Amino acid sequence: MAGPAKTGGAGGGAKGRPRPGFWHYARANFLTGLVVVVPIVLTIYLTWAFITFVDDKVVPLVPAPYNPRTYIDADIPGFGVVIFLVFTAIVGYLAKRVFGMQLIRLGEDIVSRMPVVRSVYNALKQIIETVLSQSASSFRQACLVEYPRQGIWAIAFVATDTRGEIVERMGGEEMVSVFLPTTPNPTSGFLLFVPKKDVILLDMTIEEAAKLVISAGLVVPPTKAERAAALRNTEARKRAIARAAGVKNGTPKV
Asked: I need a labelling partner for 123 at 20 to 30 A (CA). Which of 9, 36, 57, 188 fits?
């Protein structure tokens, strides 16, 4: 009596499990394709939108003898971008020279006398210098800080060691200035002054931490041990390929 009941155990469970249908595979393939197609389409769209925007603003300013529209009665996509890049490079070249520096200083003196324009110009200049700077003002390392309360951790970027009045007000304790980005837009966030002892430094790079933030935790970078294992596997495959090539050529390598 008990025999037949036992026979239908594991095998019956496996047979009774429904197989994924057509729509399951179609949905999986669609999501996979979406992950591949969406970044490409967005990149192309944003690039084309930027080129079109710059062309619309710059090309009308080009004199007629130098404007391709005068001769071929058509717009060349990217012509305005090229003119903008060349113009910017020339301005940068002149700015490095004494004459160019004097002109820039004169222009900034004029702008500094305009109440509203002065504030906008100084803010934009500071933002651009910060973004384009490749010196110590860039982020140093990714880290973990407790935010928004104790026991909950968030990814942040170490900007620099905190100095000045803030350290004095905190009793001289060693602190670091960290930028806590928001998800999925890491360009906005919060500036936090955190005691150095409360910051956990991470091995992942700034780019890997930014991908982790943008993807809302879906794109997880490999750990140091995983990187080392992948490197060992790569080296082992290279040695195997080299030995196989040596055997094929009649000179086996040990």
From this structure: 57
